[in-house]
Amino acid sequence: MSTTLPGALVSTEWLTEHLSDPDLKILDCTWHHESTNLDGRTQYRGRHLPGAVHFDIDHVADKSTGLPHMLPSAADFAKKVGLLGIGDGDRVVVYDRNCGGSAAARVWWMFHVFGYDNVAMLDGGYGKWVAEKRATEMSPVRPEPKTFTAAFAPELVRGIAQMRANLLSGAEQVLDARGPAKFNGSQEDVFPARKLGHIPNAVNLPWGDLIVPETGVLVPPEAISARFAAAGVDLSKPIVVTCASGTISCVLVLALALIGCKNVAVYDGSWAEWGLAEDTPAVAA
């Protein structure tokens, strides 16, 4: 039995073949903003993949900032992941009900931030899985706690001070994964803000442009490269990705990893922080 995953993505076929592997742990990461009147934990309890446990990005988070689901400390991440039954050496597969955009990609990124690379996202997520009539279950999963080790990788995260400094230096290309209406300021974001629009000099590449609508899988690597090129992104230069709250931006990070572009950073506070601050510039156009 292999102790590593085939890559940043796994297919529904691959996961079906490996469901019974004792070192394979599955996380249902479904999350919804409160405005949707949906709840990821409730959906998990209604039906989930066999053996999956629920990972709540609002629970595994630093709640002291007042911002949504900010990264916790390494110690807190290690403790809460261990309580989910994940230990050092386990293979982790994450999924959600929105093709990675409702937190699975962020959880994938969180594991990398805390020094753990043996994690992959289910391509197509829950939607593709059930469309193919694969097994699901309702029974709650109560895992045995395990020991998980976490070590913070600061190069994968940006804070507001670093984003302000980048306005002057231009050292990093800033990609915004939100939809065009939120990017150009014609539509309010889902989190409270003092301003609309985007960070100056940011480039818009909506995360949905990387998803095949019919199946929910990511577009193939050559199409990923083409989309970034069309947006004017130079893959040889540093990149930081932002969005509403550091969630859908991680879909872009995962896509970039698939084409060999690693060490891409995420602005953790994203527009939930930048748009709320009094002294941050914004472009609406």
UniProtKB/TrEMBL annotation:
Protein name: Sulfurtransferase
Annotated ranges, domain Rhodanese: 20-138, 168-283
Keyword field: Repeat, Transferase
Entries under SMART domains matching the protein: RHOD
Pfam families: Rhodanese
InterPro entries: Rhodanese-like_dom (IPR001763), Rhodanese-like_dom_sf (IPR036873), Thiosulphate_STrfase_CS (IPR001307), TST/MPST-like (IPR045078)
Any GO MF annotation of the entry: thiosulfate-cyanide sulfurtransferase activity
